[in-house]
Prior knowledge:
By secondary structure, the protein is an alpha/beta fold.
Amino acid sequence: MAAPGGPGEDPEAFWRSKGVRLLCGVDEAGRGPLAGPVVAAAVILPPGAAFPGLTDSKLLTPAQRQELCRDIRRRALAWAVAEFSPRQIERLGILAASLRAMAQAVAALSLTPELVLVDGRDPLPLALPQQPVVDGDARCPSIAAASVVAKVHRDGLMEACHRQYPQYNFARHKGYATAEHLEALRRWGPCPLHRRTFRGVREWFEGDSRPEDGP
Length: 215
């Protein structure tokens, strides 16, 4: 299925103009961190519904995301999330794990979408009509909604992880490779939540106790 319009246009508006009602947006959160799961969300919004301020979750404050997430989950026709663990990420690779998580989120919806709009360039391993959309979280309201739901869900998981492993301060950096997180890794080494195939963590399993910065 070919993407309509140029990079600044909204494929969602195009498909809705063609009569598609059950249109699902799907996105993930947590591809880049050194620790924690990757989380995907799928959302079917009511046609014509307005969510003021809705955009790519990375451009929103935590308070804005929380408020929008509550509104999206309350008003959506259907929504679902899926998680892939650090061990699954290690086994599959982060791209395949992300795509499978997104496919699982779509499959978990209480309604079957007529069309799935996927953030990014890659189609999902899913037998449904779908359209990958580059920068979809900035172009399509349904993908933006999914990005918010995925981000809020994952942030909540990482805050729970912080209570289990407070020495890493997961509540602050959510597992990303910040200077604080890398310093905690140097001091404490990895915990079971760390992704052992990511640079900055894998060195610990290769006998190097001084991992380099970055994923």
